[in-house]
């Protein structure tokens, strides 16, 4: 019996060692103005913060921008994966190692200003309408947890705004800063859309986080790097350069 226990323990720690030895990878999504690839260059306020943290920690790894569901799955399943910008929720609390806060955010429901048939004053009112959501992101998960059934998930948030503009859906659940940024990029006027409801509990700070089973030395270096960035005032400078304010942590 002890022989089998020893073999099992050896196998377990061998696999654990292999997981920890995997190279660091960084995953994110295209979510301007926070993180996105512009002409092949990693850009955005969160990207600048993470890049500065990596430099302070003495670490280096390319950033992979891909659909959120794919990045999220990698961060859940592969050790030594750094993911950003991610909202911290009770459901996610024990699924990641939370490095720290990097940028403020808020989330809302938006409609076309010309669509007078859509009337939303409370979250319950929104249940009557078709809502575009971004697959597996925090707003999608939140609305599912609230029992919403008329959801249309897509693998890129921009598709929701285009569908809303064409009247194919009634509402979009979106990040406030992203929505404001992207409608201008798409050639719309801010007056073309209207925020009808702030999503309760979906605001605060976005985080950078590591996957479970990651190298403790890497986790410590990143945590200390972010702390140093904030202590020096550089973190606040980056936020202010993008028109954002650092909130008390």
Describe this structure in words.
The protein has 249 residues and is of the alpha/beta class. It folds into two domains: 24-104 and 204-241, D-Maltodextrin-Binding Protein, domain 2; 106-201, Periplasmic binding protein-like II (D-Maltodextrin-Binding Protein, domain 2), CATH 3.40.190. The protein is 38% helix and 28% strand. It is built from eight helices and ten strands. It has helices at 2-20, 45-57, 68-77, 138-145, 157-165, 176-185, 216-232, 234-241, and strands at residues 25-28, 36-38, 41-43, 63-65, 81-87, 96-112, 131-134, 151-154, 171-175, 193-211. The chain has an eight-stranded mixed β-sheet with strand order 4-1-5-10-6-9-7-8, with helices on both faces. It has a two-stranded antiparallel sheet with strand order 2-3. A hairpin with a 2-residue loop joins β2 (36-38) and β3 (41-43). α2 (45-57) crosses α7 (216-232). The longest helix is centred in the first third of the chain and has 19 residues, at 2-20. The termini are far apart. Mean pLDDT is 91; it is low at 1-16.
